[in-house]
Amino acid sequence: MKQRVFSGVQPTGKLHLGNYVGAIRQWAKHQDDHDNIFCVVDLHAVTIPEAVDPKLFRAKILEVAALYLACGIDPEKSTVFLQSHVAEHSQMAWLLNCLTPLGWLYRMTQFKSKAGNNEGVGTGLLDYPVLMAADILLYDTDRVPVGEDQKQHIEFARDLAQRINVMFPDAKLKIPAPMIPPAGARVMGLDDPTAKMSKSIAETKNGHAIGLLDTPSRIKKAIMSAQTDSGNEALFESAGPGVRNLLDLYEVLSNQDREVIEAEFHGQGYGKLKKALVEQVVGCLEPIQARYHELTDSPDYLDQILRHGAERARSIAGATHERLRKAMGFV
Ligand code: AMP
Ligand code: TRP
Asked: Is residue 50 scored above 80 in pLDDT?
């Protein structure tokens, strides 16, 4: 039996190279080894309601689904669906809510950084990890391929599953493990290498991120103006954060060994590294963009994949939800 993999991306902001190398590329790469379920987590996206305009939101949801396929997710090998199409996600989240100590939620770093002292934020923002735990646990997931920033959320899902299995042994929830890539798990902003490349910052700040749908000239501009330092060191272990970020991206995209990369770029001035990285990025994104445009030309095809995906997802999620319901004593 193949191990089950589940993951998702929120349809907010602008999907970027960090999302690709940290998450989606890993999903695509290991498709043959796993039983794969990939979800566009649209219910998570509305935890920041001010970011949501219904028309844009709808378009963004379909864009992310099309990008999954364009990045190499093969619907013959993977189930692709929209979270809101499978009601069990919300239903499971309610049961999990009632079994989650509030203190666990207040401790989550994402909530603390997004909410700050603002008591006006939606309750969904606090509850975000519970819905994510529901996503993962509904599919008896073995592994969750994500970037490093999601580690705490997966630990939360593990802790919650363990707690529930003690309270209700018949629930038999599977304990999931994170699957974090050895390189590319934390791509930093090009304009500020001390901050993670982020979809929301990318929306408003040119030069912060490389969008998966950016034109070659935009990609070139962003990389050529990436923040580096005044030296010419291109050694992985001693490079400053800006150069290290460029080196890491080059390593991930070129599949070359570190020694080869260092021999090529060390002591050369960063222009050479930047130009070579532009080539790698453009070369990587070109086929993805071509496929994306093909897919957006045939919306019926995407619609059919998503319907079919939701059907399969529902059949798995329904059984797990029912198992927990019964274990808790519901009639
Ligand atoms: P999000 O943008 O928060 O919806 O993230 C979607 C997926 O991309 C998650 O698995 C994240 O861990 C991953 N991810 C987001 N930003 C980065 C980044 N800067 N570097 C690597 N992975 C990332
Ligand atoms: N929180 C994740 C992110 O922002 C998205 C997500 C929601 C997710 N549910 C998930 C990722 C389940 C993996 C598994 O990136």
From this structure: no
**Residue 186 domain-assigned (yes or no):** no
User: Do 153 and 206 reside in the same domain of the chain?
Assistant: no
C-beta separation of 233 from 243 below 8 A: yes
Measured in angstroms, how far is the CA atom of residue 20 from the centroid of ligand 1?
Answer: 8
Does residue 298 contact residue 140 with C-beta atoms inside 8 Å? Answer: no
Which residue segment(s) compose the domain that 235 sits in?
A: 199-293
Residues 218-232 pLDDT 10s: 999 999 999 999 888
Residue nearest to ligand 2 atom 6, measured at CA: 8
The DSSP output letter for 184 is S
Active site residues: 114, 196, 199
**Residue-level pLDDT at 204:** 87
Residue 216 alpha carbon to ligand 2 centre in Å: 29
pLDDT at 34 over 90: yes
Residue located nearest, by CA, to atom 8 of ligand 1: 19
